[in-house]
Amino acid sequence: MNPMKVMVTGANGFVGKSVCNSLSAGIDVELIKTVRTVQYSGEMEVGNICENTNWQELLKGVDVIIHTAARAHIMNDSAQDPLAEFRRVNVEGTLNLARQAVETGVKRFIFISSIKVNGEGESNRVYRFDDSANPEDDYGHSKWEAEQGLKALCSESSMELVVIRPPLIYGQGVKGNLALLAKAVDKGLPLPLGLIKNQRDMLSLNNLIDLIKTCIKHPAAAGQVFLCCDNEPVSTPQLIKLIANGRGKRARLWKVPLIMLKLFACLTGRKAMFKRLSSDFRIDSQHTMNTLDWTPPFSVAQSMRWAFTKKL
Predict the structure, then answer these.
(1) CA dist., res. 154 & res. 19, Å (int)
(2) To 10 degrees, what angle do helices 14-25 and 205-217 make?
(3) Which residue in 299, 209, 294, 208 sits closest to 25, CA to CA?
(4) How does pLDDT run across 182-206, given as a tens digit for each residue?
(5) Which candidate, 36, 49, 158, 174, has a CA 20 to 30 Å from the CA of 123?
(6) In sequence order, what are the beta bridge partners of 109?
C-alpha cells in the first residue's frame, strides 16, 4: 500500500516546520513541503501565495493538505491597506489552493485558522466552537472569510474540510509578546505585573502538532471546527514565572495597581498590549476532545520548559 501523501504549506514557518519534522519522524507519509523561498533541501518553492499561484504539479496524488501558510498578525503593520493584504494571502490565496485541490482529488483540507475568528477575549466569556464569529481585527476577519469560502467550496465537492482555531501558540522560536517577556526575564528587568489576576488559555506548539496529526486520519474530524488549548489557563504572573523557570532565572514581579498600568498604557499607546496582558481569554475545547477522543498530551509546565530553555 502506498503511503499517504501529505502537503504542508508554509513548511519552514513556526508551525509548518514542526509539523513536517513530526510527520517525517512519525506516521508513514510521503511529505510535500511547500515554501515561499527555499531554505533547505527537500522544500518546494511556490513564491508568494495569492490568487494566481499554480499548485497543479505539486498537488498530483496528494491526499491531505495541511495549510499553515498565512499572512500572520503583524504588529505596527506598514501596509497602506492591511485588510487587502490579509485577504490577498489568507483568503484569495487559500481559496485558490483549495479550488485546485478539489480539481486534483485531494481528500482532506486541514486549515489552520485562528481563535481571533471568535474574538479578542472578554471577561466572563468562554469561547465555544459553535459561537457566532466576532473577529475584531483584519487578520481575524481574513481567517473568517477564508473559513466561509472553504466551507462553501467543500460543500459542493467531496473534499473534506477540517478547521483548527488555535489561540496564542508558544514553542521554541516563538516571537511577539512572549519573546519580549523572555528578553525582559533574561535581563532581570522588574515587571510591574504582579497584581494581575487574569486567566488565559494558550496552546503549546507540541499539543497543536499532536492535534493536527490526529486530524489527518480521524474520520470524525471531517467537516468540523476545532477550538484547542492546553486546558491549563495561566495568569500573566504565572506565565512570567514559567518563562523564568525555563530560562533558569528568577521572575522579578512588582505589584503595581492595575489602574496605574492602564493609565500608563493609554498614555503610551499600548492599550492593546495591556489588554492582552491583563484580560481573560478562555476557550472551551471539550467539543474537540470529545469528537476526536483527544487530550493535550503535554502539560503547560513541560511545554514552557521546552519552549524557553536556552540552548547551550
Answers:
(1) 24
(2) 60
(3) 209
(4) 999 999 999 999 999 999 999 999 9
(5) 174
(6) 65, 161
Q: Which three cell numbers stand for residue 304?
A: 514552557
Q: Read off the pLDDT of residues 73-93 as tens digits, 9 standing for 90 and up.
A: 665 566 778 899 999 999 999
C-alpha cell at 83: 485588510
In this structure, what C-alpha cell is assigned to residue 43? 522544500
Cα separation of 248 and 171, whole Å? 17
Given this model, what pLDDT does residue 77 score?
A: 61
d(Cα 245, Cα 206) in Å, to the nearest integer? 19
Q: For residue 200, count other CB atoms closer than 10 A to its CB.
A: 22
* Residues 297 and 210: beta-carbon distance below 8 Å: yes
Query: What is residue 312's predicted lDDT score, i.e. its pLDDT?
Result: 43
Q: Which CATH superfamily is domain 4-165 in?
A: NAD(P)-binding Rossmann-like Domain (3.40.50.720)
Give the domain ranges of the chain. Answer: 4-165
For the chain, the farthest-separated pair of C-alpha atoms sits apart, in whole angstroms, at 65
Q: What is the pLDDT of residue 78?
A: 65
Residue 175: name the closest of 284, 297, 13, 300 by CA: 13
CB atoms within 10 A of CB 234: 18
Q: What is the mean pLDDT of residues 36-62?
A: 93
User: 3-class DSSP state for residue 242?
Assistant: helix
Whole-prediction pTM: 0.94
Write down the catalytic residue from 40, 127, 139, 170: 139
> What is the sign of the dihedral through the CA atoms of 127, 133, 136 and 141?
positive
Per the listing, cell 459553535 goes with 130
**Where are the strands (E) in the chain, listed by range?**
4-9, 29-35, 43-45, 64-67, 108-112, 126-127, 160-165, 169-170, 203-204, 225-227, 282-283
